[in-house]
Write a structure and sequence with these properties.
Elements lengths: L1 H29 L3 E7 L6 E2 L5 E2 L3 E4 L9 E12 L1 E10 L2 E13 L3 H21 L3 E2 L3 H4 L10 E2 L2 E4 L9 E5 L7 E2 L18 H11 L5 E16 L7 E16 L13 E4 L3 E2 L5 E5 L3 H28 L2 E9 L1 H25 L2
Parallel strand pairs: 1-14, 5-8, 5-13, 7-18
Antiparallel strand pairs: 2-3, 4-15, 5-11, 6-7, 9-12, 10-11, 13-14, 14-15, 14-16, 17-18
Helix pairs in contact: 1-5, 2-6
Length: 361
C-alpha cells in the first residue's frame, strides 16, 4: 500500500512538473510570430559604444581635419543604391528556453529602372546645389578623369547589382545607379560597398593612387558620395517575445561622403569621411503589403522544426522550435509615392552631409 502511494505521488509530481513546463512553453510559443503592419514604421535608433548603450550621432565624423580649409571640390563619384529585397531575422535564446528565430523575407515590386534613374539624376543636381549653397566652388570632374593616373582606375557599369543574398537565398539584392551627369561608368571608392572583392588585388590600386596624383596638380579636393535607399523595417517584441513585425518605411539606410587628401602640408594616412549614424526616414506611405507565404511550406517547416526541437529538448524543445517561423512578404509600391518618399530622404541626407561638411571647414 505504501509503495502504491509512493508511486502515485511520484507520478503526480511528474505530471505537474511537465504540465508547468508545457504551459510555460505554450505561453512563450504564443509570443512567437511574424506579421506585417499596414502603417509606416519608425526607423530604428542605432546604438554603439560599450555594450551598445550609447546612441549614435546623426552624422559620424572620421578625421575631421580632412575637411578643414577646403574651398574647391570635385565630385569624383556619386551613386544611389536601391534595395530590392531584404531578410530580417530576430533570434532569441535564454535560460528559459532554447533558441528560436522569426524571419521575414521581403521583396519590393512595382518600381522600374527609369524611375530610379530619374531619382538619381535629380538628387545629383540637388547635391551640387547643396554644395554651392554651402559656399563650395565646384570643379569639373573631367579635370580628375583626364589625368594619366586615372587610366588605372577600375570603373564598373551601372546599374550595378549589389548582391548580399548568400548562397541559398535571393533576398538581399539591390542596385546602384549612376547619374546621367556622370555617365554609365564610374568607380567605387573605399567604404562604398560591403563586397571586399571590389577592392582586392591590383585593380584596387588605381582608386587609391589617382586622388593623390590629382592633388599634386590641383587645389580641388575629390569627394565621393554613396547612398542606400531602403524600403522596409522591423520592430521586435517585448521580453519573453520573439514576435517580429515588418512594415514599410523609406529610409537612407547608409550614406558615406569621403574626401581626398590635399597635396600640400603634412600628409597622413587618414582621409576625411562622413557617415550616417542614424537612418533618415520618411513618413510617406508608398506600398501595400501582401503575405505570400505558402501555408503548406509553413506547416512543413514547423513540423521539421518541432522534430528537431524534440530530439534536443523533448516536448518543450519541440514546442519552442515549432515556434520558429519564416514568412514571405511582397511590398507592391505606388511608383509616384515611392519616388516622392525617396526624394524626400535623399534631399534631407544631401543637406545634412553638406551642412556638416561645411561646419568642419
Amino acid at each position: 500500500m505504501d509503495a502504491l502511494k509512493l508511486y502515485r505521488g511520484r507520478f503526480m509530481n511528474f505530471l505537474l512538473r511537465n504540465l508547468t513546463l508545457f504551459l510555460l512553453a505554450a505561453v512563450l510559443v504564443g509570443c512567437s510570430t511574424v506579421k506585417s503592419t499596414d502603417g509606416v514604421m519608425k526607423a530604428d535608433t542605432r546604438k554603439g559604444g560599450f555594450m551598445g548603450l550609447t546612441t549614435k550621432d546623426d552624422i559620424e565624423v572620421e578625421y575631421a581635419k580632412g575637411f578643414a580649409s577646403v574651398e574647391k571640390v570635385l565630385i569624383g563619384g556619386f551613386k544611389v543604391g536601391f534595395n530590392d529585397s531584404k531578410k530580417l531575422t530576430q533570434k532569441t535564446s535564454s535560460m528559459f528556453r532554447p533558441s528560436t528565430s522569426q524571419t521575414g523575407l521581403l521583396k519590393l515590386d512595382g518600381v522600374d529602372q527609369a524611375t530610379r534613374q530619374q531619382i538619381t539624376d535629380d538628387m545629383y543636381d540637388h547635391f551640387v546645389q547643396a554644395l554651392q549653397d554651402a559656399g563650395y566652388q565646384l570643379v569639373s570632374r573631367d579635370e580628375f578623369t583626364r589625368i594619366p593616373a586615372y587610366k588605372e582606375v577600375k570603373e564598373v557599369d551601372f546599374p550595378y547589382q549589389d548582391d548580399n543574398s548568400g548562397l541559398f537565398s535571393s533576398y538581399g539584392v539591390g542596385y546602384f545607379y549612376s547619374p546621367r551627369q556622370i555617365g554609365s561608368r564610374q568607380p567605387f571608392f573605399h567604404g562604398e560597398l560591403k563586397d571586399p572583392g571590389m577592392f582586392a588585388g591590383f585593380s584596387a590600386m588605381g582608386i587609391m593612387k589617382a586622388p593623390g596624383e590629382f592633388a599634386k596638380v590641383s587645389e580641388a579636393r575629390i569627394i565621393n558620395v554613396a547612398y542606400v535607399v531602403d524600403f522596409a523595417g522591423a520592430s521586435e517584441g517585448d521580453f519573453f517575445s520573439t514576435a517580429l513585425e515588418v512594415g514599410q518605411v523609406m529610409t537612407i539606410d547608409s550614406a558615406i561622403l569621403g574626401i581626398s587628401k590635399g597635396g600640400t602640408g603634412i600628409q597622413t594616412a587618414s582621409t576625411g569621411q562622413l557617415t550616417l549614424g542614424q537612418p533618415i526616414a520618411s513618413e510617406i506611405s508608398f506600398a501595400t503589403i501582401q503575405d505570400n507565404t505558402s501555408e503548406v511550406e509553413a506547416g512543413a517547416t514547423m513540423a521539421v522544426n518541432a522534430l528537431t526541437g524534440f530530439f534536443r529538448g523533448g516536448v518543450v524543445g519541440a514546442l519552442h522550435q515549432s515556434a520558429s517561423q519564416t514568412r514571405e512578404y511582397v511590398f507592391s509600391a505606388d511608383q509616384e509615392k515611392y519616388a516622392e518618399a525617396a526624394r524626400e530622404v535623399l534631399a534631407k541626407t544631401n543637406t545634412l552631409l553638406t551642412t556638416k561638411m561645411a561646419s568642419l571647414r
